[in-house]
C-alpha cells in the first residue's frame, strides 16, 4: 500500500481526539441564524433501467409503504405533561452522576435541587433539539440520495425515507414547541458534520455519513431515551421513529455492502477517514456545552469532570453500538491494515464489533410487534 492516511489534525483539526479545550473551542458563531446554505456539489442522475435488480432494497421499500404512521393522529398531543416531574424521574433513573461531590471546586458544587432540575429540563430540550436538527439533515440527505443514487430500487426506497424524515422533523418540533417551550440552536459539531455530508459530491458518502453514521448513532440514542423515560407521549413518539430509523440504517448497510466490496484500498481509505471524522464529531456534540453556558457555567470547568463519570462513559460508548458492527459489515474496520479498527479502539468502542448489524436487525424494530405488545427492542439488544 503506497497511500497514507491523513493525520488527526487534517481530519478533525486536532492531534488528540480527547483534547477538551480544542473540542470546546468549536462553537456557534451566529446563534440567531435562521437560514443556513450548503452547496451539495452533486449531479442528479436519471436511470432508464426499471428492472428489479436489488430485491433486498425492494423489500425495504414494501415495508416502508406499509409501515407509515401519522404523527398528527397516532400520537396523543392533548396529553398533559408535567415536565418537572418527568425530568426528575428520568434524572434519577439515568444515574447520571450529577452530584455536588462530583463537581467539588466548581460553581456547580453549590447547586441545589432547583438548579439541577432547571439544568435537567434544558438538557432534555437540548437533546431533543439535536434530534430535531439531525432529522432535518436526514431529510435533506435523503432527498439528495433520490437524485444522486444510480439505482432504481434505491431511488424508490429513498423517496419513502424522505417522507419518514419529514414526519420525524414534524413530531420532534411539535413536542419541543408544545411540551418543552421551544428548541435549542444546532450544536456546532453536529452542524459541521451535516455540512460535510451534504457538500460531498459522491453519493455513497451521503449514505455513509447519514444512513450509517448519523442514523446509526441516532437509533442507539433514541433507544436509550425510549428505555429510560416513562413519559407516554415521548415514549410512543420515539418508538415510532425508531421503527423507521432501523429501516433507514439497513438501507445504508445493504446498499454500501455491494459498493464497498469492489472498492480499492485508496477508495476505502477515504471512506474510513470519513467514518472516523463522523464518529468524533458525533461524540464531541454530546458534551452539551450550550446548556452549561446557558446556566452560567464555563464548560471547561465541568466537562472534564463529566467525562470522568463512569455512567457517562458507558453511555458514550453505547452510542456506537450500532455504528461499529455496521462498519464491520461494510469492511471498513479492517481494510488498510485495520486503520479504522485502531481508531475505534482508541475511542473505546471496538467491543461492539460482533453485535448484530442493522442490515438484519431492523426487522426487530417493526411496529407490528409493538402493537401485539411483544418485548420492545432497546439499544444494544
From TrEMBL:
CDD domains: Ferritin_like
Gene3D superfamilies: Ribonucleotide Reductase, subunit A (1.10.620.20)
Record InterPro entries: Ferritin-like_SF, RNR-like
Gene Ontology MF term list: oxidoreductase activity
SUPFAM superfamilies to which the protein is assigned, alphabetical: Ferritin-like
UniProt superkingdom: Bacteria
Protein name: Ferritin-like domain-containing protein
Species of provenance: Ilumatobacter fluminis
